[in-house]
Amino acid sequence: MAGDFSGIDPGRPSAARVYDALLDGSSNFEADRVLARRMLAAEPRARRWAYANRAFLRRAVGFLLAEGVRQFVDLGSGLPTVGNVHEIVHGYRPDGRVVYVDVDPIAVAHSRLLLAGDERAGVVCADIRDVEAILADPVTRRLVDLDEPVAFLAVAVLHFIAQDPGPMLAGFRSVAAPGSYLAVSHLTAPGDLSADAAGVVADYNARTATPLTFRGRAEVAGLFDGWQLLAPGVVPVDEWWPEPGDLEELEAHGRVPIWAGLGRLGPAV
What we know:
disordered N terminus; single chain; globular
């Protein structure tokens, strides 16, 4: 992986880079690939889960664009992979604006390289829990007009926050205009998680700065407090307005243990 990443410990796996490895990306270190291989050996469905989550992001952004949203804040955006939010947005409406937020310096560096020269998208290096810093950042101030609806995307990131993410999400909601949206996907504990897979999770949690916290459906639904939860509600990620291929995967391989939902601020349209 090219670039100047001095100060980064390549022997310590990162959530963003392991996710990238599961998506067959190239923006990861050997430690990340080793952990991804261990995960797949213990839980062969993990790659399908990663792709299903990515497909939810694409469908959710497409839905929001159809609803007229033209500015997006992608919280915990991770590493640039095929089908980035700005690619989806600009393919539908060239005037759309996207702010990526991540605390991983590698994710930020790669994203800035990817977006060089694109005035419609930018990157903020910040912890997603620091709402004030994100909103005050010059990139956010340039690209996001809080007097207009904005979509906050918290996709596959909140399970890396051990404390209740509710107050953080309430901070973003408090500044959002009516008609804004919140999209969430969140990993939950599979009912049939093997002992080997549980061991890999425990090892990951012991070695990373972003340990996993599984939450159940009721807890994920609670993250939409103050937002009007839209149909079909909080459902497995591959059952949120699925496409035919998703239904085939569901029938063949069972549900993906990731809850997903979309909420709107203000009366339902």
